[in-house]
Specification:
With 324 residues, the chain is an all-alpha fold. The protein folds into 2 domains: 212 residues, no CATH class; 111 residues, no CATH class.
Length: 324
Amino acid sequence: MIEIAVISIILFFIGLAYLKIALKIGAVDTPNKRSSHVAEVARGGGIIIPIAIIIYTVISYQLSYFIFGILILAVVSFIDDLRGVANRWRLLAQLVAVAFLLISVSDGESLNWIYAVLIIIIIGTINAVNFMDGINGITVVFGAVFLSTLLYLNTRIYFADQKMLVYVLIAIFVFGFFNFRPRALCFAGDVGSISLGFLLVYLTILFYQKTNNIAVVSLWAVYGVDSVLTIINRLIKKENIFKPHRTHLYQYFANELGKPHLKVALMYGLLQLIINILFLININYRILSEAIFLVSVLSISGLVYTALRLYVINKIAKPMNPLV
């Protein structure tokens, strides 16, 4: 308990110091037509997430290729938050970081074409976490639900250092102090959301390697369904999927319907928490095979997403089309 308290205090004061520095140097998000906020807010507050991993690494002496990968991502993403980084350099950093991740989990095996496919999937996933970080509290809730589930699983099926999970979860809650409020003091920024996404992908792979349980992908269901179907919607409308937009379902709720950010974030978190609990129940009682469970979760999540999108479209008086 003393260790947890000390780490919490350290991360809190780092977050507080960064907030003051960010405001002083002008590292802020200024509202524009794509924004879900109406006032300038410090960006990059999620830096305490990779800092928590650095602290863990120093204390535990657990240096690995994964650590190198997340440091590369954190540095480039933080620079991007402060002054912007060209897309080609951002992509290069992500490629190198993901390569380090795959080396870290490859168990000495030679890399093959499957890893090339994984690189694409992982880069897509970590960027999806970044795209979903568009309203106050949503990254806090997503990270807390995901990491709490992994923390519980790790007590039963050891697949990662428990201390690392605890440190990052503390960082999520500390960041939540600054972000989980009607008027956020800071946003996670790329450094926070991309680092978190990278870590969660890494932990997902570790759990799968330990258990061969493909149903662990269901822990990504809510974010995954929203991200994938939003991309499909935009492709159908012949939009450039690499340009910023406000067409995620959570953005419709927060912007077009004017729902409070925290309520929308909690709704997303609650839906994912229900899925996670069902996942844990299925592990305990083997009600369904892993593959059938995953397909069922993704199918039902897709239907719920479509129903909610129809609801929103009706509310804002747009054509009733779930793929609009």
